[in-house]
Amino acid sequence: MGRGDLTDAQWERLAPLLPPTGGRGGRWVDHRRVINGICHRVRTGVPWRDLPPEFGEWITVYKRFRRWSADGTWERLLQVVRAQADAAGDIDWRVSVDSTIQRAHQHAAGAPHRPPPAPPERGDGAGTNQDNPSWRELVALLEEVARQAKH
Length: 151
Fold this sequence. Notes:
Radius of gyration: 17 Å
Distance between the termini: 20 Å
């Protein structure tokens, strides 16, 4: 297990919440290996094609990330993990507000926010390297749970 990979305790909490493997096209690469690859990419900012080989084929990691972004899997995971942490009292919901003003960029004025479309199964589809903010929030929450588990 590398630095930043899911621990056994984290995996045991997360595994039952994931979609079943298999289905279309037969066997899937292990979810844990793919999620560790996605976490590595989000943490380091490395391009998909430059993922280290221990996470498997980059295209497999990329397609799983895109598919789960499009079908709402990441949103469901975040809701369940957040609810579990809240029930355990691990989330402090106090809000701190200050009067700092930040100007928004001119392009931030009301653009519609939609989840990315599902990736094409075959053929030449135009891919993107967009990050999913929900995924970043899930990774941050998982890292916080891991830090608290060490104490």
